[in-house]
Amino acid sequence: MTQQLTEKSDVYSFGVLMLELITARMPIERGKYIVKMVTNTIDKTKELYGLDEILDPVTDFKASLKSFEKFMDLTMKCVEESS
User: What SS3 string covers the chain?
Assistant: First the structure.
């Protein structure tokens, strides 16, 4: 990312914030970027998109799987590097 504040950087930041909410992690933790961690782990063919190991254990995402999928789809669109 550039150091300029633009609508594009705002959307990306919003996506990072959404990832923080569902994982209860910082954007950069122990040298690992949350976006890369989720991007490398996500598998839309699995329940909870295969992210159960990195999701916030306090939140029950299985209660509303459809809402979780919509949330994740929007989140991933926000953090796409090509968008």
Answer: CCCCCCHHHHHHHHHHHHHHHHHCCCCEECCEEHHHHHHHHCCCCCHHHHCCCCCCCCCCHHHHHHHHHHHHHHHHHHCCCCC
